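> forwarded from #structure-qc
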């Protein structure tokens, strides 16, 4: 069944010139791009987006990194979109990610790990709505 997910191509990927290769990887994996835009997260946006992690020791660094440069935010669709994106991304730490995954190919560290993907269909809906008005997905 068709499902939506949400991704952020993170600042390290844009800075290193890998955004296009990551978008190609996602298209080759069968995702349809429903909406996409380049943006530069504000401090408030990054804090709110990662609020679930606000007790973690890495939270402040994560917010600083995610606001350090432009990113691509994208709404994606395919069958089994959430688990398929997570499989294509690989483990959070690129060092632990399987060969051929986006984080293995392009991630630098557990923080500068190339890409974010929603962890559930419910969170995908919340994250898509955080960045895109419903009209952009019509
Ligand atoms: P993401 O999937 O976007 O969700 C939370 C992010 O926090 C994660 O990717 C990493 O970029 C970052 N992160 C998770 N765990 C750690 C950690 N132990 N140290 C530093 N950053 C982390």
């Amino acid at each position: 069944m068709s499902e939506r997910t949400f991704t952020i191509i993170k600042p390290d990927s844009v800075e290193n010139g890998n955004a296009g290769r990551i978008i190609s990887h996602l298209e080759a994996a069968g995702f349809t791009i429903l909406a996409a835009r380049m943006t530069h997260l504000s401090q408030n946006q990054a804090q709110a987006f990662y609020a679930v992690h606000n007790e973690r020791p890495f939270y402040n660094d994560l917010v600083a990194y995610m606001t350090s440069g432009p990113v691509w935010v994208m709404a994606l669709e395919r069958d089994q979109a959430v688990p398929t994106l997570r499989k294509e991304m690989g483990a959070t730490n690129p060092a632990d990610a399987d060969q051929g995954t986006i984080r293995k190919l392009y991630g630098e560290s557990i923080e500068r790990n190339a890409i974010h993907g929603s962890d559930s269909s419910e969170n995908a809906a919340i994250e898509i709505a955080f960045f895109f008005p419903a009209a952009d997905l019509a």
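QC bot note: The chain has a mean pLDDT of 97. The helical segments are 11-15, 19-28, 43-49, 59-66, 81-89, 102-106, 121-131.
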